[in-house]
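User: I'm writing a short report section on ligand binding and want a predicted complex to refer to. Could you take this sequence and LYK5OOP5 and write out the structure as tokens? A short remark afterwards would be nice.
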Amino acid sequence: MTDHETGLGEGSDPAAVESERAPMPTGPERVPQASVPLRERIKRRGPMLLRRGQVDLTTTDQRLLDSAGEADWVHTDPWRVMRIQAEFVEGFGALAELGPAIGVFGSARTAVDHPQYAQAEEVGRLLAEAGFAVITGGGPGAMEAANKGASEAGGVSVGLGIELPFETGLNAWVDKGINFRYFFARKTMFVKYSSGFVVLPGGVGTLDELFEALTLVQTQKVTRFPVVLLGTAYWQGLIDWMRDVLLADGKIRESDLDHLHLTDDPADAVRHVLDRLEADGVARPSGSYPE
Ligand SMILES: C/C(=C\CNc1ncnc2c1ncn2[C@@H]1O[C@H](COP(=O)(O)O)[C@@H](O)[C@H]1O)CO
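Assistant: Sure. The structure tokens for the complex follow:
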């Protein structure tokens, strides 16, 4: 079995490989350890003693820098686990000190000249003025609009982008951006660093984000989490269906619907978020309350 397989090689240092009798030579006369007879090789690593065949002859760095060998392992799940871990580390590191924030979701396809774009921009602005950072998916459409409103109001405009088969990149109004490979890591960041969501008209991506929030509230994985639906004409049908079918059939409770605040007014959306958080004992950020 090799050192790699036993794990004994990690952290080893051939400079510490020495003969039990002779002290470690320190200068140009240093003997390559491979030339020390096998039976005389000895190494101490912390509380561990290694002798003979257990003494490895290369350092961790040497093995790291040795580019020879197979590279297929970068396409294996154990390696992906490391990349997933890295996304959480990067996300937590970038957002841990963000302060109070609200997630704003909505269609990637909302056109710049559409009234919903103006509404998203207004929401971004009012949230920033209220003292919230604004977190979006970092893409085009409603996301871009909310980032624009937040950034132009001098707020913290955050975009959590996602790698897609087609390149879209972070929109130009994202002032703090992270690009994720994995949807689930990105979704964790939305929920972990937002105190509530404002959801504008959108498609399956937006519905996914909305229903994830509702599921987490229903299962009490998150508490104190206001969710506002902006656009009554767009959302009323969904609310009616949830009430008439899901609730009527006993698949949800009335309280699951109570979490949803439906409005057409961006100022009302932001007031609702502030009021709900205050009612739940969360300190209000130091910005202005929308008139
Ligand atoms: C469809 C197009 C670009 C997609 N680019 C996206 N970039 C970032 N985030 C996205 C993108 N598409 C979807 N999302 C996420 O889902 C929500 C919007 O999805 P919907 O289906 O459009 O409602 C959004 O909140 C993002 O988090 C080309 O225009």
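A remark for your report: The two ends are 73 Å apart (CA to CA). Residues 1-22 have pLDDT under 50 and may be disordered.
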